Amino acid sequence: MAAKESDLEYWLSNSSEITYSQKNWAGSLFSSFWVSYSIQKFFKICLYFRRKTMKILIIEDEAGLRESIEAYYNEEGCVCETAYDFVSAMAKVSLYRYDCIVLDITLPNGSGLHILKYVKEHRHPDGILIISARSSLSDRLTGLDMGADDYLTKPFHLSELKARVAAIVRRKSFNDTNTMIFNEICIDFSAKEVKIHKEVIKFTRKEYTLFLYFIANKGKVVSKNAIAEHLWGDGMDIADNFDFIYSHVKNIRKKMIEAGCKDYIQAAYGMGYKFTG
Q1: What is the set of domains in the chain, with CATH numbers?
Q2: pTM above the 0.85 mark?
């Protein structure tokens, strides 16, 4: 599905608080980081089975709760991003995809239900867990009928939140697919293992995450900016020097070639990298 300006216009035109510079910023990021829906659907499998690098968006205006959830998932090794109001939340769901969005209903400048509606209308694959102090049956049914995957009333234990999120992501996977074979490469998602000619390749966690990202975007050039955002989230300070990415790619290629694998990862000079084959 191709990126369209109308995707952003949905919220830009309905946000009285947004400035001209914010519109330019959002439009620029949108065109830079959009990945097709079909690729993202496949990528969800990879995201689930490498649980420790699951990508979560927390949309919550209460600072204490938002920070507690963020710290909890960061300790789990997840990529965790946050938004505190309607405008910043819409910017993120318009530009990025997540394993699960933890969504509060009552937000400054707008309603979380409008965010839910936007995600569903645009057929984004993100799981959505509503967290709300509204505990009536009618409120829960409204959220679920609009397409939310689950509804959790406040207050709650973080362990229960974690279990609910994990269940959503598990259901979003493709019939619990555990393995994928591509030529001489076999990926076991449940074991988080890559084998080449039946030999286990000892990737680091970041190398494994990056390798899956290349596989999910096979045949497409992925920019260094996109790689950095995927590995470290929006907390990454995008600098001019991307030596750390070059180092990860170099190590992945070296380990694959030493195991007798074809060199599928090619540099697209001035743009990024592409997984061929």
Answers
A1: 35-172 (3.40.50.2300), 179-275 (1.10.10.10)
A2: no
